[in-house]
Amino acid sequence: MKEPDVQASSSVPWHRYGSIAYLAERAGGRDPQFGKTALQKLAYLVQDVYGVPLGYRFSLFHHGPYAPELAGDLDYVVALGGVRIQFREDGQRGFAIESGPSAPDLLARADAFIETYRDRLGGAIERFAGMTTRELELRATILFVWRQLANPNRDVVLEQVQRLKPQFAAETVSAAFDELERSQLLRP
Amino acid sequence: MMFTQVYFQHTRRAYDHHATEALRRCLEKVQAGATAPSTFPPPEGDANLRAYLEWDDWRVYGMLAAGEGGEDGAVLRTREHDRSVFQTVEVPEPPDVDRFEEVCAALGELLSFRDHAEKSWYKLADEDVPIERRIGDRTIVTPLSVLSSVVRGLTPVRQLRAYVRARDRDRGREIAAKFA
Fold first, then answer.
1. In the predicted model, what is the mean pLDDT of residues A12-36?
2. pLDDT tens for residues A38-94?
3. pTM of the model
4. Which end of chain A, N or C, is less packed with Cβ atoms under 10 Å?
């Protein structure tokens, strides 16, 4: 099915900036902390697994799928006041992303896009936003590896993910794989 | 700064655009009928690799000299590059972008291309630069952007520019001036 063309005809990708503000609004300011790495993984899931055409190109980095353009967009959205980022020295440590004072303006500029994909965005947020960054990292990596393979199967994916992520116990990887399979997210 | 004064310098960006479009035209001319005629042959198989290696400077220069690079190829030969007639500030706010759109609309057919500075100029890797610090008995890792006000102050350049052909420069500037 052809996706509706709801991306702004503007010179700037408001649909991306608005989506970052939307994810921060829905997933930020809660526990577990929603940081930069979590945003990268959630955006990957939103785009490549839930089919929201944000227009990023994700590659596999240290902590799973990562798009440099998203990191740049996040910086710009921070500069516009669409989100706020604070570094926390206590508790979970790391950057925490929260909605910013200009979020309503960015959301309004991406309104048609967000409205069109609200269900998909909501589905990804509902399933994944309550996870820790490590849990997101593992699941996003499993999905990334699955989708990269021409003929993926459980054994090959588990072996590749285990090699990429030796810090995760084999049972943890296996359990995450089964969970994604039950959720019917392991598809081409 | 390096990014705005070198990589995103307005004339350099014009030539980036002309070189890209002229090369695209040359590729399309040679690879007409291919699946993706405007890109280099994909790195799959010996035939494609040989075809790719044939795209050397001599071939491209020869095509440009023979007038096969289209209008942008002619610009490269004559050095009559497109001119920037309007630009936003380096980190444009939404109203700045709105004004830019108005200028582009007013330029209409005079507008040859819009340029976007979309690359973040500081963060090139997955994470910030990690700095290890000892505080008492503890060793902690803190991102450079937290410790350095200079790095923290670097905001991504998202400047937008509107270009017109060299022959339309005066008329383009006149139109853009109404929005300054």
1. 88
2. 999 999 999 999 999 999 999 888 788 988 889 889 989 999 999 998 877 766 667
3. 0.81
4. N
Taking Cα atoms as reference points, which of A4, A33, A16, A41 lies closest to residue A132? A33
ipTM of the complex: 0.76
CA-to-CA separations, A69 to A21, A76, B54, B161, in angstroms, rounded = 15, 11, 32, 20
pLDDT reading at A9 higher than 90: no
Integer Cα distance of B75 and B156 in angstroms: 31
Q: Which residues of A touch B116 (CB under 8 A)?
A: 11-12
Smallest Cα distance from A79 to chain B, Å: 7
Write the DSSP assignment of A109-149 as a string of letters.
HTHHHHHHTHHHHHHHHHHHTTS-HHHHHHHHHHHHHHHHS
Average pLDDT over residues B148-167: 85
* Of B122, B94, B13, nearest in space to A11 by CA: B94
Amino acid at A39: L
CB contact under 8 A, B97 and A80: no
Tokens 């709105």 sit at which residue?
B98
- Angle, helices A14-27 vs A68-80, to 10°: value is 80
CB of B118 within 8 A of CB of B51? no
Task: Report pLDDT for A3.
Answer: 54
Q: What contacts B37, CB < 8 A, 6 or more positions away? A: B27, B28, B31
Q: Distance, in angstroms, between A182 CA and closest chain B CA?
A: 30
Report yes or no: A38 and A133 within 8 Å, Cβ to Cβ.
yes
Neighbours of A174 (CB within 10 A): 15
Using CB atoms, pick whichever of A11, A75, A80 lies closest to residue B123.
A75
Place of tokens 């042959």: B41
Q: What is the rounded distance in angstroms from the CA atom of residue A147 to the CA atom of residue B118?
A: 28
What stretches of B31-148 show up as alpha helix (H) in DSSP?
45-53, 57-65, 70-78, 94-107, 144-147
Return phi, psi of residue A51, to 5°: 75, 30
The alpha helices in A10-153, defined as continuous H runs, are 14-27, 36-44, 68-80, 103-109, 111-116, 118-128, 133-148
